[in-house]
C-alpha cells in the first residue's frame, strides 16, 4: 500500500467551495530513463485519479509521464450533503488504491 | 573583483555600520548589542512557491515520510520494544536538535540517523541501515518534524572537538578535478550564482530534505556526496568517518539556527 496524504477541511460549509488535496507516494517513473548500466527503466506511472462522494464521481484526472513523483492533486468541491469521499489512484502494472475520508458539512 | 560585484557584500557592511551608529547614539546601554547573525538558511533563497511548499504540511511531500516514521515509532517491534515504549509521547521534541553527539559507548560521534540505527539494532534486533535506508529516513523525518522551530544545539562533549576540527579541515580542503573546497563556494561565494542557482551558505537545518532534483527524501550525507562528485572528486565510502566529521563541523557552524523540520529544496 502506498502512503497517502489527504487533506479535507474539518467542516466545510454547505454549498461553499472548499479545497481538497490528495498526495500519494509513487515514483512516476517515466519510461524514458536508463539505469547506470544503460538499460531502459520500464515505465511505472499513475494514469488515472478520481474522487467520488458516496459513489458519485465529483472529480477525475488523467496523469501522464511528465508528472513528478509523489503527485499532489488539488481541486475544489462544493457539496450540499455530507458523506464519504473516496479517492482512487490507478496506474501501470495493475496499480489500484482507494482511500476514504468522511465529509461532514456545517450548515 | 569587479566593482559591480562589490554591492553583494554590502548588506553585512551596512548593518554593521548601522549598529555602530546605534551604539554611539544609545550610549552604554546599547554597547552590549551583538554583531548581527548573517547566517541564512537556504530557505530564504527559494521562490515563494517552494517556500509555501515547505511550510504547508498539506503540500510538503516530506510529510509522506513523517507519516510513515510516526507509524514506525508507534509500531510494536517484531523483536524487542517499540520506540515509543522507551521514548514516551512528547519526548520526541528536541531529540533531533541534539545531534551529532558524542557516544562514549562506541567512542565516536553519532548523527541522528546513526543513533536511530543503533537503537534499532540494540533494542529491535534490526539489521543495520545506511543513512538513506527507508526506515531511517522515515524515522529521521518524524523526529525532525518533532523538533521543528527549536534552535540547533549539537552535543557539547569536548571529545567531539577533534572530529569538528577534521570536518573543518575537510571543508577548507580543495578537492577533485575542479580543485574546489566547500569553503570557496559556501563561505566565500554564498549568495552569488553558480549557473542558474544561488549558492546557499550550506547550513543543514532542514535534513532530511525533500529535494525536487531527487524526487524524494534524502540525508545530509547524500547531499554532501552530491557536492563532492560535483567538484569531480571521488566520494568517500558510504558511512566513512569523513562524512561524520563534516556533519559534526556543519552542525557547529549552524549551531543556534532554528531547525526547519523536513525541508524542501530545489
Structure explained in plain terms:
- The complex is a heterodimer of chains A (107) and B (266).
- With 107 residues, chain A is an all-beta fold.
- Chain A has one domain: Immunoglobulin-like.
- Chain A is built from no helices and seven strands.
- In chain A, the strands form two sheets. Chain A has a four-stranded antiparallel sheet with strand order 4-3-6-7, with no helix packed on it. Chain A has a three-stranded antiparallel sheet with strand order 1-2-5, with no helix packed on it.
- With 266 residues, chain B is mainly alpha-helical.
- Chain B has two domains: 121 residues, Orthogonal Bundle (Cytochrome Bc1 Complex, Chain D, domain 2), CATH 1.10.760.10; 84 residues, Orthogonal Bundle (Cytochrome Bc1 Complex, Chain D, domain 2), CATH 1.10.760.10.
- Chain B has ten helices and seven strands.
- In chain B, the strands form three sheets. Chain B has a three-stranded mixed sheet with strand order 6-5-7. Chain B has a two-stranded antiparallel sheet with strand order 1-2.
- In chain B, β5 and β6 form a beta hairpin.
- In chain B, α3 packs across α6, α5 packs across α6 and α7 crosses α10.
- Chain B is globular.
- The N terminus of chain B is likely disordered.
- Classes of the chains: A mainly beta (107), B mainly alpha (266).
- At the A-B interface, β1 of A face α3 of B.
Please describe the structure with a list of short key phrases separated by commas or semicolons.
heterodimer, A: about 110 residues, mainly beta, Immunoglobulin-like, 4-stranded antiparallel β-sheet, 3-stranded antiparallel β-sheet, about 45% strand, B: about 270 residues, mainly alpha, Cytochrome Bc1 Complex, Chain D, domain 2, 2 domains, 3-stranded mixed β-sheet, 10 helices, about 5% strand
| Largest sheet strand order of chain B | 6-5-7
Multimeric state: heterodimer
CATH topology-level name of the largest domain in chain B: Cytochrome Bc1 Complex, Chain D, domain 2
Strand content of chain B: 5-15%
CATH class wording of chain A: Mainly Beta
Label the CATH architecture of the largest domain in chain B: Orthogonal Bundle
What characteristic shape of chain B results from the CA principal axes? Answer: globular
Strand order of the largest sheet of chain A: 4-3-6-7
- How much beta of chain A, percentage-wise? over 45%
| Count of strand segments of chain B | 7
Instruction: Tell me the domain tally of chain A.
Output: 1
- For this structure, the CATH topology of chain A is Immunoglobulin-like
Shape of chain A: elongated
